[in-house]
Specification:
Length: 497
């Protein structure tokens, strides 16, 4: 391994860049490994799970890179910089030259090491951004939440920001900041917006309008309650109508609306996003049934993943599947409306739609009644969808049946899983109160021997109650034998994908 050439090492290190522990360990193997790993670590040094405020090394590297006159100026302001002794030697690497990202929140946290005074921190921020604009050959990723400086005015900012491809921001930032970026940045591919203000931010709208190849858009409502409501409709209407004009390039559309305000979203634009690969919506359709109609009438031939937190009509999910191009790998619905009048019939149609149109499906959530017809269709799905890896499932009519009937239904479900699921299945999530008898559970696990280890998640507390120790004994035994990887209780709120 130590004799691999630099190109191979670089490819290997790129693969583990999300694992800082492993990547940091590569630094101490030899000089070649160190020289290869450093640029990858420093491409985005703010991303790692580090308590920046308690660790001074990033602060030291940044402030030691200041020119002597800047150091003198900041010191006169009472700002504590890195102590430089007579034995100080230049760094082995020009670390900041490798950096391609800025995270304002993290940088502010680091800067707080130098001073607790707001004015001093402002001065430090100014010099840090000025330094970054000079040191970075290009800036690819920017998280500008909490920003206090219009960085596009710094020397070399135009050359540095021209390559920006990923931006995270929030709507409380003054529009002028976005106007400045819009003048320079038109190559943004990924835009994540945290909505923290009840007013329209026309700077964000302008920034969206000038983009030429926007591919990923994410909107996250990030406030408990807006004190002012007068612009709420305009926030959604104007912003998303501007986004709709980017439909030709947009392939990932993700939203997380607060329930109180989602009714202002212009649902008519959903049919325009014809190139989507990812669609994630968290509508609560009690406010507006037009979402269902828009989704039913939309064609997404390239769709690979869709997630709906709530859906009024199960037929909506079936329509999305039928109108897709057979590329779906994820179908995640966190809350099916099982009290819908024709739910029994429509759930059969949904199961059929999955196995007829989704040969590549890997992640799937389903809810259906425990009729014989449903179990027959469910087994067809398991048989045909051989790539299925994660299955979340709920039997919807448990409240209508006796304890004995529910026990029989659950046994039917497990037998179907044993008979028909492929060895690719790695995880099952049982929604609702899904407690099997200890005998049924043990029989199910015994029949899993020889398959890859399975993870099981349940919302039923019964499996972890002290007075039901027989479950713990069974679960621990099959864990030890490698039949199951995990068996956990998860409350329903956190069971969602």
């Amino acid at each position: 391994m130590s004799k691999l050439n630099k190109d191979i090492l670089f490819v290997l290190f790129e693969e583990i860049q999300d694992d800082p522990k492993s990547l940091f360990s590569c630094l101490i193997v030899n000089r070649l490994w160190c020289e290869t790993a450093i640029p990858i670590l420093w491409k985005n040094p703010w991303r790692y799970n580090i308590n920046y405020r308690s660790k001074n090394f990033l602060f030291n590297i940044i402030t030691l890179s200041f020119s002597d006159d800047i150091k003198d100026f900041l010191s006169r302001q009472g700002i504590k910089l890195s102590p430089v002794s007579h034995s100080y030697r230049p760094f082995l690497f020009d670390y900041l030259s490798f950096c391609r990202s800025m995270n304002v929140n993290v940088i502010n946290e680091i800067i707080s090491i130098g001073s607790c005074l707001a004015y001093n921190q402002f001065l430090l921020q100014q010099e840090v951004y000025n330094l970054f604009m000079r040191k970075f050959s290009e800036l690819k990723y920017l998280d500008m939440r909490s920003i206090e400086h219009q960085i596009f005015y710094f020397p070399r900012a135009m050359a540095c920001l021209d390559s920006l491809c990923e931006l995270t921001c929030d709507t409380s930032i003054d529009s002028s900041y976005f106007y400045g970026l819009a003048r320079i940045c038109n190559k943004i591919e990924k835009l994540i917006i945290f909505n923290a203000s009840p007013k329209v931010n026309r700077g964000i709208i302008k920034l969206i309008e000038v983009q030429r190849k926007l591919k990923y858009f994410e909107w996250e409502d990030d406030c408990d309650e807006f004190e002012e409501y007068f612009d709420i409709v305009d926030i959604y209407e104007e912003t998303f109508l501007a986004l709709a004009k980017k439909a030709d390039t947009l392939i990932h559309f993700i939203t997380n609306f607060q329930e109180e305000y989602e009714f202002t979203f212009p649902s008519r634009i959903l049919s325009e996003f014809h190139n989507l690969k990812t669609l994630k919506l968290n509508f609560h359709p009690i406010f507006d049934y037009s979402y269902d109609e828009q989704l039913k009438n939309s064609d997404y031939p390239n769709l690979e993943s869709f997630q709906l937190d709530d859906i009024t009509l199960i037929s909506t999910v079936a329509c999305i599947i039928k109108n897709s191009g057979g590329l779906l790998r994820r179908i995640l619905v966190n809350n099916y409306d099982v009290v819908e009048d024709n739910f029994n019939e429509e759930s059969l149609i949904l199961i059929n739609a999955v196995y007829e149109h989704c040969p590549l499906i890997e992640y799937l959530s389903l809810a259906f009644p425990s009729s014989d017809d449903h179990f027959v269709e469910f087994e067809k799905l398991l048989t045909r969808c051989q790539k299925l890896r994660i299955l979340a499932i709920s039997i919807s009519n448990v409240s209508e049946k006796s304890h004995e009937q529910m026990t029989v239904d659950r046994e039917k479900l497990l037998r179907a899983l044993i008979r028909s699921s492929s060895t690719n299945l790695r995880e099952i999530r049982f929604f609702e109160h899904f407690r099997f008898t200890s005998e049924t559970l043990e029989d199910f696990l015994e029949n899993l021997r020889g398959r890859p280890a399975l993870s099981i998640f349940t919302c039923d507390l019964g499996y972890i109650k002290e007075d039901l120790a027989e479950y713990a004994e069974i679960i621990n035994r099959y864990k030890k034998d490698g039949v199951i990887k995990d068996f956990k209780f998860v409350d329903k709120e956190h069971m969602h994908f």
